Amino acid sequence: MSIKQYHPRGYLSNITSFKNRIFIMRHGFAESNLAHLLVGGFEIGSKAFGLTDEGREAIKQQAASLKEHIGARGVQAKIITSDFLRAFQTAEIVKEILAVVTPLKISTLLRERDFGELNMQHITRAKEIEPHDLADPNSTYMRVEPLTKILERVTRQIYEIENDSESGHIFILISHGDPIRILMSALTNHPIQRFREIPTFKNGEWQEFNACGI
Fold first, then answer.
1. CA distance 51 to 18
2. What ranges in the chain are assigned the alpha helix state H?
3. CATH ID of 26-203, from 2.60.40.1930, 3.40.50.300, 3.40.50.10610, 3.40.50.1240
4. 21-26 and 170-175 as β-strands: parallel, antiparallel, unpaired?
5. Whether 209 contacts 12, CB under 8 Å
6. Paired sense of beta strands 105-107 and 78-82, if any
7. Burial class (CB in 10 A: 0-12, 13-18, 19+), 187
8. What is the Cα–Cα distance from 74 to 116, expressed in whole angstroms?
9. Does residue 169 carry a pLDDT above 50?
10. pLDDT grade, residue 140 (50/70/90)?
11. What is the DSSP letter of 26?
């Protein structure tokens, strides 16, 4: 199969620096993590498999750390979250801890990778996708969402932030494991086929991004 041409930085191809401060956080420990299931389908992920009690408490601690890092301007932050329940619940806690005054914004661009026929299967089955991702970033093996589509949407989210807002704002994005690593690949010019070489964010982990890396 021929590999369709794409830019390794997606929508960030012409962006060399950010005019806003952008943070990314992975959702907290969720029932899907506890059950070791791949939950990438919107119909299920948007309604079920929310945070565990342990996950909620851990996010409170991570949010407190983020609040200390950002400082007083945290109340003016803009939080954009995946529309999956585990991410939305994470965003609610972050909003409360930081006392953010603006409403949460939900974005389909930040949602989990759709695992197609592997949705609701044990996480070990994700290894079946790896050789296909490596061979072709446009692969839709077992109807799994291709890497190029994830790259397009997560970098588009950053592009929209930078293009549609004035400078100097603080944005906190709440997303999922694979989309975050693919975004990190774009920011560091790392081939998306090898996104698994980038360390996975732990549940609740956050980092600040810039246009040329972390």
1. 32
2. 31-35, 42-45, 53-70, 85-98, 130-135, 147-164, 177-187
3. 3.40.50.1240
4. parallel
5. no
6. parallel
7. buried
8. 37
9. yes
10. very high
11. E
Element holding 203 (H helix, E strand): none
pLDDT tens-digit readout, 29-51: 999 999 999 999 999 999 999 99
Distance CA(63)–CA(55), nearest Å, equals 12
What are the structure tokens assigned to 69, written together? 């890092």
- Global pTM value: 0.94
List the end-to-end C-alpha distance of the chain, in Å, as a whole number.
33
Give the Å distances, CA to CA, from 178 to 68, 97, 99, 147, 150: 27, 26, 29, 9, 9
Q: Are 66 and 58 in contact (CB under 8 A)?
A: no
All structural domains of the chain with their residue ranges = 26-203
Give the tokens for residue 206. 């956050």
Q: Is the pLDDT of residue 14 over 60?
A: yes
21 close to 173: Cβ distance less than 8 angstroms = no
d(CA 159, CA 15): 8
